[in-house]
Specification:
This protein is of the alpha+beta class. Helices cover 25% and strands 34% of the residues.
Length: 143
């Protein structure tokens, strides 16, 4: 059984936080060649949940859950290259559905829309550039 960690910013050990932020940077900034400020001020909000799974060397799959006036926003869904294809992000997203009340929304990278659709999300708007040069689609989970 895989252990899923679900913590607020203040509950995360500094070394683990470093590894989580490194994972996000490796994927969103380096791998995807998107120069943007990943540390956007939302991580430290007391209502933000950081959810992840570890592999043998630390965090390998991660997402965060933000509480907004319009609902709950899932973001920063990331899995290390070495751990992809094992269904880890799917497990995390299902965990959020099972453990979170309210409307669940996300901005999916457009090339991942079919995967999110297979998990119960529907496209709710037009494709847009989220400021990082990668096309995104607004999606909402249908309960």
């Amino acid at each position: 059984m895989t252990i899923i960690f679900d913590h607020s910013f203040s509950e995360i050990e500094p070394e683990v936080l470093y590894d989580l932020l490194r994972l996000r940077s490796e994927i969103f900034v380096v791998e995807q060649s998107s120069i943007y400020l990943d540390l956007d001020g939302c991580d430290t909000d007391p209502l933000t949940r950081h959810i992840w799974m570890n592999g043998s060397g630390g965090p390998v799959s991660y997402l965060r859950v933000l509480t907004e006036s319009s609902g709950i926003r899932i973001g920063r869904v990331a899995t290390s290259k070495e751990a992809r294809g094992q269904g880890l992000a799917t497990e995390l997203l299902r965990y959020v559905v099972d453990s979170t009340k309210g409307k669940l929304m996300l901005h999916a990278q457009a090339h991942l829309a079919d995967w999110y659709t297979s998990l119960g999300y529907v496209v709710t708007g037009k494709e847009f550039d989220d400021g990082d040069g990668i096309p995104h689609l607004p999606m909402t989970f249908v309960r």
